[in-house]
Specification:
Layout lengths: L3 H11 L6 E4 L3 E2 L9 H13 L2 E2 L2 E2 L2 H11 L9 H11 L3 E10 L2 E10 L4 E11 L3 H15 L3 E2 L2 H4 L7 H15 L3 H14 L4 H19 L7 H14 L10 H23 L9 E3 L5 H28 L11 H9 L10 H11 L1 E3 L4 E5 L2 H4 L1 H23 L3 H24 L3 H14 L6 H11 L6 H14 L5 H19 L2 H13 L7 H17 L3 H13 L4 H11 L8 H5 L1 E6 L3 E5 L1 E7 L5 E7 L6 E10 L2 E10 L5 E12 L7 E12 L5 E14 L1
Parallel strand pairs: 1-4, 1-5, 2-5, 9-11, 14-20
Antiparallel strand pairs: 3-8, 5-6, 6-7, 10-11, 12-13, 12-20, 14-15, 15-16, 16-17, 17-18, 18-19, 19-20
Length: 713
C-alpha cells in the first residue's frame, strides 16, 4: 500500500474533471435612477442562489466576487467589457461570466443577460425577461431558465429555487441595501436593515438566511474588537511617538516625567503587538499562529517589539540608578487612559522589562489587551541568536542577584534570596518551554543547593521528580506515548491517539503551521498504514485538519481531511466536522477526489452519486458488487461483476434505482484499473451501461464516460 502522502498526490492527478464554474457579475443599471444602483447586488445574489439549484455548474459566491472587485477596483463604470470579463474569469477560475442590464419602462421591469465564455471573451448565450415590477421573482426565474436551457443544465432541486422568492421589487431593493452595508463593513446597520426586511417580509427566505450570516459576522466582529486597529489605537500611536521623541533626555527629566516616558514606551510595545495581530490567526485567543503569506510582516513586527523592549530595559535601568523606587508606578494623562480603554488595551504596568522580553523571545508570550496570548512561532524560534541573547541577559541578571544574596545582611537577605530564586525559576520555566528538561532540572537543583531552606523547596523537589519520571506528569507521559508509537511503527493504535495532540501542539507552537506538516511527516516516515492502525492515522489527520482551520489555513484543512478519508475516515463525519467546527473552510473537491462514482447520462447530463460509494467481494471471490447512492433521494446504481479469471472481472448487469422510483436493469461494461488488496482499500475503473426505459415512453438511456473509485467493505 502506498504511504498516505503519495496516495494523496496520485488522487490529485487522477481526480475526475470538475463542473464548469460560473460567476455572476453585477448587472448594469439602465433605469436612469441612480438610487437603484444597489439593486445589482440583490439581483446577483438571487441569480447565484437560483443557479445552485441546477446541476452541471459550480457557482462563485457573491462575497468572493465583491472582494475581487474591491482589490481590482472593477466595475466602477457602466459597461463591463469582454476583455475585463476575461481577466475576471481567469483570476477567479470561472469558465463562464453572466452579466447584463436592468431596465424599467413605466411600471414594467426588464432584465437582459449575456453569458460570456471567459477564455474567448465570446457571448455564448443571451436571455431576456420583462413584466410588472412586482413580479421580479418570476422574471428572474424565467431569465435563469432560458440560460440553463442554453447550456444544458438540469434542475436538481426545484424547492431550492423558492429561497430567492422576493415578494416585491421594493423588498429586493431593501435586501440589496442591507448587503451593501455589510460589504462596506457597516455590519451593525446591515443587521438592523435585514431584520427590518425579514419582519416586513417573513416569507423572503433568502433574506432570512442572509440575516443569520450577518449576525454571525457581527458576533465575529465583536470577538475581534480587541484585535483591531481602531481610531483610538492610531491616536495612541501618535501620542506615544510624540512622547518618545525626547527619550534621550530621560536623565534630565523629573521623576513624574520619567515615569510618563517609561509608561508611553510600554504603550508603544502594546501597539506593536496589536499590529502584529493583523498577521496572526485569531479564532483561538490564547494561541495565535502566523498566517500563511504573512511571515515577513510578522517577523518585522516581532523585531520592532524587541527593539522597543530593549530600549525600555535600558531606560528602566537608568531610572533605577537615579531613583530609590526600583519598581515605579505608571504615569499617564487622562486622555491616554481613555484611549487605552476605548482601544481595549491592557493596563499599563512598569514591571521588570526583562521578564516580558524573555517570555516574548523564548515562549512567544504577549500582552496587549486584557488577555495574555502566545504567538507561534516565537521570535526565538525564528531567530535563535535572539533567544541566546535573551538568555545571556538573564544569566547576567542571575549572576548579579546571586552575588547580592550572598553579600546581603540579615535584614535584606530574604528579599535578596527571593529576587535570585525568581530569576532562576524564570530560566527553568523558559528551558522547559523549549523541552530542555535536563537543563531545567539543573537550574531547579541550583536553587535547592543555593537556598535549601527557602520557601517552595518541596515544590521544586517534586518538579524535579516529575521531570525525571519518578512522578506522573501528564504532558510528559503523552509525549512518551507518541515516541513509543513512532519507535514501534505504530503497532499500537492507542499510542497514536493518546500522544498525537500534545506533540502536534508542541510543534505548532515552535514551528507555526509548518509544525503540522512536520507532525504528519514523522508519522508517515515512521509508520505504515495497516488495518489495525488505520483508525489512528485518521484520528491524527482529523486533528491536523481542524487545527489548520482554527488558524485560517483552509488549504491545509483540505489536505489533512483528504488524508483522513484515505486512512479510512468517514466522509459523512468529515462533512459534519466541517459544518460544526470549521464552516469558514470549504471542503471543495476533497470528497470527490477521494471517492467518486460519475458518468454522463445520454451524453449530455452529469450523473453523480455521492454517498455510500462501496464495493463488496463475495466470500468465494466470484462476485464483485460496486454501489453508489445519492445523498438526497432514493437514486442508486449497482454494478454486478462476475469473476472472469484471476484478478479479472466482467460486468454481468447494472441495476439503476432512479430518482422517480422506477427500477431499471441493463447491460454494462467495466474496466478495472485497480483492485483493492483488502477491506478498506479502493476499487477503481471505468464503466458504461445501457438501460431500456418502457414508461412513460420507450427509449434507451445510456451512461457513458463512467468513472468510479469506491471503498471495499
Amino acid at each position: 500500500m502506498l504511504p498516505a502522502f503519495l496516495l494523496a498526490a496520485t488522487l490529485a492527478a487522477s481526480a475526475p474533471p470538475t463542473k464548469p464554474v460560473v460567476t455572476v457579475l453585477y448587472f448594469d443599471n439602465n433605469t436612469g435612477h441612480a438610487d437603484l444602483d444597489v439593486l445589482r447586488k440583490g439581483l446577483a445574489d438571487m441569480i447565484i442562489t437560483d443557479l445552485v439549484a441546477w446541476d452541471g455548474v459550480s457557482v462563485v459566491e457573491r462575497e468572493k466576487l465583491e472582494s475581487l472587485f474591491g482589490e481590482l477596483k472593477l466595475q466602477k463604470t457602466k459597461h463591463f467589457d469582454p476583455a475585463t470579463a476575461a481577466k475576471v474569469g481567469k483570476l477567479i477560475g470561472a469558465r463562464y461570466l453572466l452579466t447584463g442590464a436592468i431596465g424599467t419602462s413605466g411600471e414594467e421591469l426588464r432584465l437582459d443577460a449575456r453569458l460570456i465564455e471567459a477564455d474567448r471573451s465570446k457571448v455564448v448565450a443571451t436571455a431576456s425577461a420583462r413584466g410588472p415590477r412586482d413580479k421580479v421573482f418570476d422574471l428572474e426565474q424565467r431569465l435563469v431558465e432560458q440560460l440553463a436551457a442554453s447550456i444544458d443544465l438540469k434542475l436538481r432541486d426545484s424547492a431550492a429555487r423558492r429561497r430567492v422568492k422576493a415578494p416585491s421589487l421594493e423588498a429586493l431593493l431593501q435586501y440589496s441595501k442591507a448587503i451593501d452595508l455589510s460589504d462596506q463593513g457597516r455590519v451593525d446597520e446591515a443587521q438592523r436593515a435585514m431584520q427590518q426586511l425579514v419582519s416586513g417580509s417573513p416569507s423572503f427566505l433568502m433574506a432570512r438566511e442572509k440575516r443569520e450570516q450577518i449576525l454571525k459576522r457581527l458576533q465575529e466582529l465583536e470577538t475581534r474588537r480587541a484585535d483591531l486597529i481602531t481610531d483610538s489605537a492610531l491616536q495612541l500611536g501618535a501620542l506615544a511617538d510624540a512622547a518618545l521623541a525626547d527619550e534621550s533626555k530621560l536623565d534630565s527629566l523629573d521623576e513624574k516625567a520619567q515615569r510618563r516616558l517609561l509608561s508611553m514606551r510600554v504603550v508603544k510595545g502594546q501597539l506593536i503587538l496589536r499590529l502584529l495581530k493583523q498577521h496572526l490567526s485569531w479564532r483561538r485567543k490564547s494561541l495565535r499562529v502566523v498566517l500563511k503569506g504573512h511571515e515577513a510582516q510578522a517577523l518585522e513586527l516581532m523585531r520592532a517589539w524587541l527593539a522597543n523592549q530593549k530600549r525600555l530595559l535600558d531606560e528602566h535601568e537608568r531610572y533605577r540608578r537615579q531613583r530609590s523606587d526600583s519598581w515605579p508606578s505608571a504615569e499617564l494623562e487622562p486622555e491616554v487612559l481613555n484611549l487605552l480603554r476605548e482601544a481595549r488595551m491592557a493596563e499599563v504596568r512598569l514591571s521588570d522589562p526583562l521578564d516580558a522580553l524573555l517570555q516574548f523571545v523564548v515562549e512567544g508570550r504577549c500582552l496587549d489587551s486584557a488577555d495574555r496570548w502566545t504567538v507561534a512561532p516565537s521570535l526565538g524560534d525564528l531567530e535563535p541568536q535572539e533567544r541566546e541573547a535573551a538568555f545571556g541577559l538573564l544569566d547576567a541578571r542571575i549572576e548579579s542577584a546571586l552575588a547580592a544574596a550572598a553579600g546581603s545582611d540579615a535584614a535584606s537577605r530574604r528579599a535578596a534570596e527571593h529576587a535570585a530564586i525568581r530569576l532562576l525559576e524564570t530560566k527553568a520555566e523558559a528551558l522547559l518551554s523549549l523541552r530542555h528538561d535536563e537543563e531545567a532540572i539543573g537550574v531547579y537543583q541550583q536553587v535547592l543547593d543555593a537556598f535549601p531552606t527557602a520557601d517552595g523547596s518541596e515544590r521544586r523537589e517534586r518538579r524535579i521528580r516529575q521531570l525525571i519520571g519518578a512522578e506522573h506528569d501528564d504532558a510528559r507521559s503523552k509525549r512518551e506515548r507518541w515516541a513509543k508509537a513512532m519507535g514501534e511503527g505504530c503497532a499500537a493504535d492507542m499510542d497514536l491517539r493518546v500522544g498525537s495532540a500534545t506533540v502536534a501542539h508542541d510543534r505548532l507552537k515552535r514551528m507555526g503551521l509548518a509544525g503540522l506538516k512536520a507532525h504528519a511527516d514523522e508519522l508517515e516516515r515512521s509508520c505504515r498504514p495497516t488495518r489495525r492502525n488505520r483508525g489512528g492515522f485518521a484520528f491524527v489527520y482529523r486533528d491536523l485538519a481542524l487545527e489548520a482551520a482554527n488558524h485560517e489555513d483552509c488549504e491545509g484543512f483540505r489536505t489533512w481531511f483528504g488524508r483522513y478519508v484515505e486512512a479510512d475516515g468517514s466522509i459523512a463525519d468529515m462533512v459534519g466536522y466541517q459544518k460544526n467546527y470549521a464552516p469558514w473552510c470549504e471542503l471543495g473537491e476533497v470528497v470527490r477526489s477521494v471517492l467518486w462514482f460519475t458518468a454522463r447520462l445520454d451524453g449530455s447530463w452529469d450523473f453523480e452519486l455521492d454517498r455510500h460509494l462501496t464495493s463488496v467481494l463475495s466470500h468465494d471471490g466470484k462476485r464483485l458488487s460496486l454501489s453508489g447512492r445519492r445523498e438526497h433521494g432514493p437514486e442508486s446504481l449497482d454494478l454486478l461483476l462476475d469473476a472472469a479469471g484471476p484478478g479479472t472481472f466482467r460486468c454481468a448487469s447494472a441495476r439503476w434505482h432512479r430518482a422517480d422510483g422506477t427500477r431499471l436493469e441493463g447491460a454494462c461494461t467495466v474496466e478495472l484499473s485497480k483492485l483493492a488488496a483488502d477491506q478498506g482499500g479502493f476499487d477503481e475503473g471505468d464503466f458504461s451501461a445501457t438501460f431500456e426505459q418502457r414508461e412513460p415512453e420507450k427509449r434507451s438511456l445510456t451512461l457513458t464516460e463512467g468513472r468510479f473509485r469506491v471503498r471495499r467493505r
